[in-house]
Amino acid sequence: MKTIGVLTSGGDAPGMNAAIRAVVRTAIYNKVRVLGIKRGFNGLIRGEIEEMDVASVGEIIHRGGTILHTARCEEFKTEEGLKKAYNIIKIFGIDGIIVIGGDGSFRGARDLSKFGVPVVGIPGTIDNDIACTDFTIGFDTAVNTVLDALNKIRDTVTSHERVNIIEVMGRNAGDIALYAGLSGGAEDIIVPEIPFNVDNVCRILIEGKNRGKVSYILIVAEGTKNSFQLAKEVEEKTGLEVRVTVLGHIQRGGSPTAADRILASRMGAHAVKLLLSGKSNRVVAIRGSQIVDYDIDEALSMKKEFDHEMYELAKILSI
Ligand code: ADP
């Protein structure tokens, strides 16, 4: 293994830069050349590739986003697109590719591996929706961003004795909602993994009001119910004043937390070590405190488990 390519793909996540830095520096430390591929699989198909050195990843560990940029690439899902990418890989003499992204990106990497290109995936997404790993890079930062917003919203909600519905990201996963909801003491957490009914939510709010509660935060994960529709129904059924805050892309940005920087550094170094030891078609993961890896097909076939115990705890603690 003389030359490794690295790219970021799909939705960006804070800590991707720390992962790139770890890949580049671990490789160079081991006397392996690193090529940075810009704009995900798009840049691979188009040969948007530059050599990276130790200095090119300086001053980025604390920065959100990704210096390699990221993109979605429909062409890469076609045989023709894959062939173009494979040709570029041969032209540039790339011996293995590290893909930092979500499960869509790992599917792309898996397709590329069928051409005999060794690939390793690093889970980078704020959604924490990758089944083989306890945590993905960017999740902790996103949860802290939501928590910061929740604390601020709590101030105004309490002053006005209102309800605020905070809509958070997560695609089809409720982890951001669950972790931010538990740590922020949300009155209720609505996630795609748990069926919910509006009357139950209203009952929680009315019971709280009867006990003298003056502020109510409901966290709703995107992919559940339209927050504005929910607000309307809750307002009609409880008589409480309801406001909606959709946090949106603010959750994707910001300086990564220490936890994300450490996770990214460990995962990036592990990915390089896998390629150098001849292991390929793997996805890096963290289980407990251990960095581990899985076969990419196995990783893609695993089903993400929702933490029901934590969800129940959040319910109990918000009574
Ligand atoms: P994420 O990696 O964050 O899940 P996407 O699902 O958008 O993001 O995937 C990123 C890119 O990975 C896509 O634009 C596409 O190039 C590639 N990709 C996604 N799904 C597949 C698939 N089923 N087969 C091949 N490539 C895919």
From TrEMBL:
**Complex formation:** Homotetramer.
Q: What is this protein called?
A: ATP-dependent 6-phosphofructokinase
Organism, as annotated: Caldicoprobacter faecalis
Question: Which gene name does the record give?
Answer: pfkA
Family (UniProt) = Belongs to the phosphofructokinase type A (PFKA) family. ATP-dependent PFK group I subfamily. Prokaryotic clade 'B1' sub-subfamily.
The UniProt annotation places ADP binding at 21-25, 154, 185-187, 211, 213-215
Swiss-Prot/TrEMBL cofactor(s): Mg(2+)
Q: Does the keyword Transferase apply?
A: yes
Q: Which reaction does it catalyse?
A: beta-D-fructose 6-phosphate + ATP = beta-D-fructose 1,6-bisphosphate + ADP + H(+)
Q: Where does substrate bind?
A: 125-127, 162, 169-171, 222, 243, 249-252
Molecular function per GO: 6-phosphofructokinase activity; AMP binding; ATP binding; fructose-6-phosphate binding; identical protein binding; metal ion binding; monosaccharide binding
**Active-site residue list:** 127
Q: Major location, coarse class? A: cytoplasm
Q: What does this protein do?
A: Catalyzes the phosphorylation of D-fructose 6-phosphate to fructose 1,6-bisphosphate by ATP, the first committing step of glycolysis.
What the entry lists under Gene3D superfamilies is as follows: 3.40.50.450, Phosphofructokinase domain (3.40.50.460)
Q: Which PANTHER family match?
A: ATP-DEPENDENT 6-PHOSPHOFRUCTOKINASE, PHOSPHOFRUCTOKINASE
Q: Which GO terms describe its biological process?
A: canonical glycolysis; fructose 1,6-bisphosphate metabolic process; fructose 6-phosphate metabolic process
Q: How is its activity regulated?
A: Allosterically activated by ADP and other diphosphonucleosides, and allosterically inhibited by phosphoenolpyruvate.
* One Gene Ontology cellular component annotation held by this UniProt entry: 6-phosphofructokinase complex
Q: Which residues bind ATP?
A: 11, 72-73, 102-105
* Phosphofructokinase domain: residues covered: 4-275
Instruction: Specify one Pfam family.
Output: PFK
Pathway terms, separated by semicolons: Carbohydrate degradation; glycolysis; D-glyceraldehyde 3-phosphate and glycerone phosphate from D-glucose: step 3/4
Q: According to the UniProt entry, what is the EC number of this protein?
A: 2.7.1.11
Return the HAMAP family for the record: Phosphofructokinase_I_B1
Segments crossing the lipid bilayer: none
Q: List localization entries.
A: Cytoplasm
